[in-house]
TrEMBL record:
<dbReference type="InterPro" id="IPR029479">
    <property type="entry name" value="Nitroreductase"/>
</dbReference>
<keyword id="KW-0285">Flavoprotein</keyword>
<dbReference type="GO" id="GO:0016491">
    <property type="term" value="F:oxidoreductase activity"/>
</dbReference>
<keyword id="KW-0560">Oxidoreductase</keyword>
<dbReference type="Pfam" id="PF00881">
    <property type="entry name" value="Nitroreductase"/>
</dbReference>
<dbReference type="InterPro" id="IPR000415">
    <property type="entry name" value="Nitroreductase-like"/>
</dbReference>
<dbReference type="InterPro" id="IPR033878">
    <property type="entry name" value="NfsB-like"/>
</dbReference>
<feature type="domain" description="Nitroreductase">
    <location>
        <begin position="10"/>
        <end position="186"/>
    </location>
</feature>
<protein>
    <submittedName>
        <fullName>NAD(P)H-dependent oxidoreductase</fullName>
    </submittedName>
</protein>
<keyword id="KW-0521">NADP</keyword>
<comment type="similarity">
    <text>Belongs to the nitroreductase family.</text>
</comment>
<keyword id="KW-0288">FMN</keyword>
Length: 210
């Protein structure tokens, strides 16, 4: 229990990364697997994660990220992109995976398929996109906490031009929209923010126990 809290105290929104330090392939794979295992509504995972290490691409992204240095100095940039729309194939593909993974005949999953489609297919396009974006944020949060367990620093970032990211990364033609960004790497010793105590609401202010 102590380590659970310690990881969260250690983690902070890194303002300055040490650009000479890179996340190892092994740790990156662990981080991505932790992200893959994240919960999502119905298990559908209506998002995609683009992992950027190419420095030229990072430079382009920085120019549309308010010039923030984390984009170019971090080891990798994880762009969480939500589906902008979806149809029945989202459910069909998932249940095909369920059937294959758990050795269940697809016809045995028809009831669950019909249930999910009844809840999702009639949603408006705006509601669908809002829902998929929320799902991306769940995976994003899991990635951030997994990174803390690996002692990899992160900076959650919403300060960027989503449409420009979509163009640079070729997301529009893939039915994706850049929703939120996680810069990952290692803190610079020059980052004074790391020494500041966390500022959070008290338990009394934040929680209601009924």
């Amino acid at each position: 229990m102590k380590s659970v809290i310690e990881h969260r105290i250690w983690r902070y929104a890194t303002k300055k990364f040490d650009d000479s330090k890179k996340v190892s392939n092994e740790d990156l794979e662990t981080l991505l697997e932790a992200t893959r295992l994240s919960a999502s509504s119905y298990g559908l995972q209506p998002y995609h994660v683009i992992v950027v290490s190419d420095q030229q691409i990072k430079e382009k992204l920085r120019s549309v990220s308010w010039g923030q240095s984390q984009i170019t100095d971090a080891s990798h940039i994880l762009v969480f992109a939500n589906f902008t729309d979806f149809g029945e194939d989202l459910v069909d593909d998932y249940l095909a995976n369920v059937g294959s993974t758990r050795d269940i005949p697809t016809e045995n999953l028809k009831g669950y398929s019909d249930f999910m489609k009844s809840k999702l297919m009639d949603l408006s396009s705006e509601t669908k996109e809002n829902w998929t974006s929320k799902q991306a944020y769940i995976a994003f949060s899991n990635a951030m906490q997994a990174a803390a367990e690996l002692k990899i620093d992160t900076c959650p970032m919403e300060g960027f031009e989503s449409e420009a990211y979509n163009k640079i990364l070729g997301l529009n033609e893939k039915n994706l929209n850049a929703s939120v960004v996680l810069a990952v790497g290692y803190r610079s010793q020059e980052d004074e923010t790391q020494h500041l105590p966390k500022v959070r609401r008290t338990k009394k202010e934040l929680f209601t126990i009924i």
